[in-house]
Specification:
Chain lengths: 261, 278
């Protein structure tokens, strides 16, 4: 009886974290380069009241034991790195990775962080940086005289000044790939940091080692699917309600037991 | 009078409480991947079963049922939880689109190498770790099919059966369980059939293990039907569980009534029948 109260509570907690994940996905439905998450559950340990295989008489053993489960817990919150859709912006500094891979930016604490959000800007020194001022690695400086910037699918970046000056090469963009992107740690602001689970990054030219090519003038939309999230939300809410009914029923049973005397 | 029957009612209350615990666990796991619901079974337990059989004398008085069966309290039956059965019914398949999500459509279990030995699971929500190895959510390696040795028996060695991806190509798992890293075939996922499902015991984390003393009749599933990009949902049916829960609760209340009736009977016996006042 007391077990069922706690078991139902673990169910409610699990559905609550399911709901938290759904809420964050829906909140980020228009975030550039956002990757949705999904809560995964597993059953808790089982309490054995009678072990199977005990002797129940001469030459006979009980074939089944008696065990009750103790509830559920959140095993993982799995990130889904499927590619989002393309939104055409025609801004020359908006870049989408058409496939797997991450842009590398240097955060203020000197560490390298990884992002799928390719909406870059020029900072005051003309360096390509993200919305929060983290400079893109390898650094690319766009001269103030440049009229426009061309980014090739393989990452070669050139700038065009006037019609009478030759296009100038500004360098080569590189993107990083991980063996297990789902193991990356989200740190907010569309950035990820590597962990032991993600493996070490391998920096490469776009389009090689399984990475995607670059596309200029477009951005990757969030990969959240509203219909999926709505269905998950309904299922989480109803499962939560059902678990709360179990709490009520256990409570009433407890009340009956208390009222016997 | 004997109020021994109060213990019979108590055993009923305890049984319903156990049933309630199981229902609570089923409902808590209504969104757990690959979860299989549990059911408790109960049986009548007669105290007479504890007695040695003895010789019955031919009755010299007109025979009644008591002449052939010495009751000695054996007329009191108790409820005994006889076993927990896991319902292995197929759960419905939910599309996720994940490359490393695999559902088994039909019978069979994946084999996973854990620190406590090989465990079985129906939850195919795999992932890869930092070394590119195919693992479960807890980081335990998923195993390939065991290679039959020269003696015709499958080897128990889990080390050589792990799956490692290079990470620069997309992963494909065919319906027959073949794992491809890009175009290279790595091997075939191990799916085993358990003919005697009573030999399986749940250990949490979506894992099953073998019970001691019962032959599980394991055989490799040569032609499994796997679905990449799908997960098997829990086979818990909310409506069934809610109905069972109402039943358990009401029967529990009924046994409590029986207990309080015994209580008021004793009360009458002690305080009214046995009253020394006239």
């Amino acid at each position: 009886m007391f077990k069922s109260l706690n078991t139902a509570a673990t169910g409610m907690i699990a559905q609550q974290s399911n709901m938290d994940v759904v809420a964050n996905n829906i909140a980020n439905v228009n975030t550039t380069g956002f990757k949705k998450s999904r809560a995964e559950f597993e059953d808790l340990m089982y309490s054995n009241q009678k072990d199977p295989g005990q002797a129940s008489g001469l030459n006979s053993i009980t074939p089944t034991g008696v065990q009750t489960g103790l509830g559920v817990r959140t095993a993982a919150i799995q990130k889904d790195f499927t590619t989002g859709q393309s939104a055409i912006t025609n801004n020359p500094l908006d870049i989408q990775i058409e496939g797997s891979g991450f842009f590398q930016v240097r955060t203020p604490d000197g560490e390298i962080a990884y992002t799928r959000d390719g909406s870059f800007k020029k900072n005051t020194e003309g360096k390509l940086s993200d919305k929060n001022g983290n400079v893109l690695i390898p650094e690319v400086t766009i001269p103030p005289t440049a009229v426009t910037v061309e980014i090739a699918p393989s990452g070669a970046i050139t700038c065009i000044h006037n019609a009478d000056i030759e296009p100038q090469s500004l360098g080569q963009l590189e993107i990083a790939n991980f063996i297990n992107p789902a193991g990356l740690k989200s740190m907010g602001k569309n950035l990820f940091t590597p962990s032991a689970a993600s493996g070490q990054p391998t920096s490469t030219r776009p389009g090689t080692l399984g990475t995607g090519f670059l596309a200029q003038g477009q951005l990757e939309t969030s990969n959240v699917n509203i219909v999926d999230e709505m269905i998950n939300m309904i299922s989480a809410q109803r499962a939560y309600e059902t678990n709360s009914k179990v709490v009520q029923a256990s409570d009433q049973m407890l009340q009956t037991a208390v009222n016997v005397k | 009078m004997s109020i021994k029957g109060i213990y019979t009612a108590l055993s009923g209350a305890m049984a319903q409480s156990l049933k309630m615990d199981t229902i609570a666990n089923n409902i808590a796991n209504v969104n757990t991947t690959g979860f299989k619901k549990d059911q408790q079974t109960f049986k009548e337990y007669l105290t007479a079963l504890e007695k040695e059989p003895d010789v019955i004398q031919v009755p010299r008085v007109p025979a009644s049922i008591e002449s052939f069966y010495q009751l000695n309290g054996g007329d009191k039956g108790f409820v005994d939880a006889s076993g927990t059965h896991t319902n292995m019914e197929q759960g419905s398949l939910k599309p996720t689109g994940g490359k490393l999500d695999v559902a088994i459509d039909g019978p069979g279990f994946f084999e996973v190498s854990t620190p406590n030995g090989v465990r079985l699971t129906r939850a195919g929500n795999f992932t890869v770790d930092g070394q590119g190895q195919l693992v479960t959510k807890e980081g335990y390696p998923v195993l390939l099919e065991a290679v039959e040795g020269t003696d015709g028996l499958a080897s128990d060695d889990a080390q050589g059966r792990m799956i490692t991806f290079k990470g620069d190509a997309s992963v494909t798992i065919s319906d027959a369980g073949e794992v491809f890293d890009g175009e290279n075939k790595i091997g075939k996922l191990s799916v085993v059939n358990i003919a005697n499902s009573e030999a399986l015991q749940k250990v949490g984390q979506n894992f099953f293990t073998y019970r001691d003393g019962i032959n599980p009749e394991v055989s490799a599933n040569k032609n499994p039907s796997l679905k990449q990009g799908f997960l098997e949902t829990s086979n818990v049916n909310i409506i069934n569980e809610m109905t069972d829960m109402i039943m358990a609760q009401r029967v529990f209340e009924g046994t409590q009534k029986a207990i309080s009736t015994y209580d008021s009977m004793s009360d009458k016996l002690i305080n009214q029948v046995g009253s020394s006042r006239a």
